Amino acid sequence: MAVAACKGGSTSPTPSSTPYSPTPNPNITKAIVEVTINGTPRPRIPVEESTPRNKESPRPGKTIQTLITGKQGLTHFNHLKPSGVYCWVAILSPSQKSSECAGWAVWQTGNVVLGT
């Protein structure tokens, strides 16, 4: 393992994002799900929302609702519990799905990205 030598300058890293909050924000109850195929946002993709079947090994459970992505490949799931863990499954084709289960630390701070 090699360590690069630095001449002068700061040795402290610069934060690359906003500081992490240790608790969920009670005012954020919406998750934005983005679906891409080969990195390109895809409209008209069904996305199923559920809660995990098992919290120790999160896998999608029974579907709560299904929404369709819009022109930008985005869909918005509202009325979520701020401390909740949710799962989303994008139906890319009859034989291909992409899924993610995430807690508030993920869905409250950025888009949930599904696809390829």
SS-derived structural category:
mainly beta
- The N- to C-terminal Cα distance equals 33 Å
If helices are DSSP runs of H or I spanning 4 or more residues, what is the number of helices?
1
How would a textbook summarize the main sheet?
4 strands, mixed
Using the coordinates above, name the CATH class: Mainly Beta
| Oligomeric state, counting identical vs distinct chains | single chain
The backbone outline, from C-alpha atoms, is: globular
Overall average residue pLDDT: 86
Order of helices and strands: EEEEEEEHE
Question: How many distinct beta strands?
Answer: 8
What is the number of domains?
A: 1
CATH architecture: Sandwich
Strand percentage lies at 35-45%
Low-confidence stretches: 1-17
- The radius of gyration computed from the alpha-carbon positions, rounded to a whole number of angstroms, is 18 Å
CATH level-4 homologous superfamily: Carboxypeptidase-like, regulatory domain
Question: Looking at CATH, which topology would you report?
Answer: Immunoglobulin-like
Mind explaining what this structure looks like?
- The protein has one helix spanning 104-107, and strands at 31-37, 40-41, 46-52, 60-68, 74-77, 86-93, 96-102, 112-115.
- With 116 residues, it is mainly β.
- A hairpin with a 2-residue loop joins β1 (31-37) and β2 (40-41).
- The longest helix has 4 residues, at 104-107.
- The model is unreliable at 1-17 (pLDDT under 50).
